[in-house]
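FIELD: query
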Amino acid sequence: MVKRTSLEDAPCPIARSLDTIGDWWSLLIIRDCFLGRRRFSEFQKSLGLAKNILAARLRTLVASGILEMTPASDGSAYQEYVLTPKGRGTFPILVALRQWGEEFSFEPGEVPTLLVDRKAHRPVRKLELRSASGRLLTQPDTEVVSNAGALRS
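FIELD: result
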């Protein structure tokens, strides 16, 4: 089996992020946490994932601070997995992936679920990248600079 190359020390924030949450099983486990799943058996039933692979992914997510293990909320002897603040910080990532998938992975009218504003019961608006002044940005409007000291005021 080929050993995976670690990107934890890469100079690119995207590479480092992918080192932690870059495989699809990890992202689907995180998605399931946002949907209210907390127990190993719930993840296994939802994902159909082999126990050894699920256990390995959960260990990695706990070790990286995305999830934490807590005593079961019902007082049983089980442990539950809950999102940490770092884990909850992945929400915009999942929304962006969802919206990209809705646009490019389905035929018109085929998307089976919608992400809606719980209070207004309306679909969530598409994520947008905006400048500090509020201007809508696209890729040609941005650049990557070598360090924070190179930023202009």
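FIELD: remark
DSSP finds six helices and two strands in the chain.
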